[in-house]
Every structure is written in C-alpha cells, then in structure tokens.
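chain below, 170 aa
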Amino acid sequence: MLHSHFIIGGARSGKSRHALVLAERVGNRRVFVATAEACDDEMAKRIALHRGKRGPGWTTLEAPLDLVAAIDEARRRGDVCLIDCLTIWLSNLMRHDRDVEKETAQLCEAIACSPIPILLVSNEVGMGLVPETPLGRAFRDEQGRLNQVVASVCDRVEFIAAGLPIILKG
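prediction:
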C-alpha cells in the first residue's frame, strides 16, 4: 500500500467497493471517514447501505466539513484511513459558503503529512453534459479543480469504470 491513494470514477462505478477492499488489505484497525449527512430519507438509506458493506474492524467518523481533524483523529484510532467521498465534502463546503481553495490546500497538507495510509474517493463529474444551472456549472468546475489538486499530491490515482481500476498514476 502506498501512502496516499486517490480513487475516482462515475456514479455507481465501484469506487467505494474498490477502496474498501484496498483498505482491508492494509490493517485491522480501519477508519472510515464519512462526509455525507442524512438530510433526507433517500440519503439516510444510502448511508445505511454503505454502512452495511463495511464489516468488523471499521471505526466510522462523521466529518461533513472538517476532514483535517478527521484525518488527525483517524491517526489515533487506526492503521488506515478511508475518506468517502470528496464530492459530498465539496458540496457541503459550498453549501456552507466555505473557502474551497483554502480547505482543499489544508486537506492536501493533511494527506501529505498523514502518518498512516490514506485512501480518498471522489466522483469524476466533468465527463457528461454541461449542467443547466450556474450552481451546477460552478460545482462541476470546483469538483474538477479539487480532483486535480488531490491527484497531484497522492502517490497513486485510479479511475474506476464498470468496477475495474485503470491506473492513472503510481
């Protein structure tokens, strides 16, 4: 396992499953950092489905905004940290009018300084239609920038398509 591993792909491409398998190879004390919040019934069901896919040996930290603190806490609790996902984290930052560029820089510093291996999951959203609304276009643009910056600091980057990993870096 390399120090940092970034896994990107489209919706339902198998990103999270791939990340879980990789993390389970690394250590017995695994920390899952969840960025999603159960703001409605549909999201609550999605979260429950994800939780059900994690077996024993996982500690879950909920961190919709402060990933730096979550990475620090993961270091104290585990052998490996899996953050799922940066796309939801980005939408949380934008919804709360946080400085995305500053938060991204802090995240990248935390990734580089993490004493335990870290896996990050994110969506590739720029391969489809141009969003209809200004907010949708702003989000797509921010997601593209976030993915580029995180990929630049990670040792390994994989794109998942149809459940299959394609190595982009490392």
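The helical segments are 15-26, 41-53, 67-77, 86-95, 100-113, 134-153. The chain has one domain: 4-169.
thats it, cya
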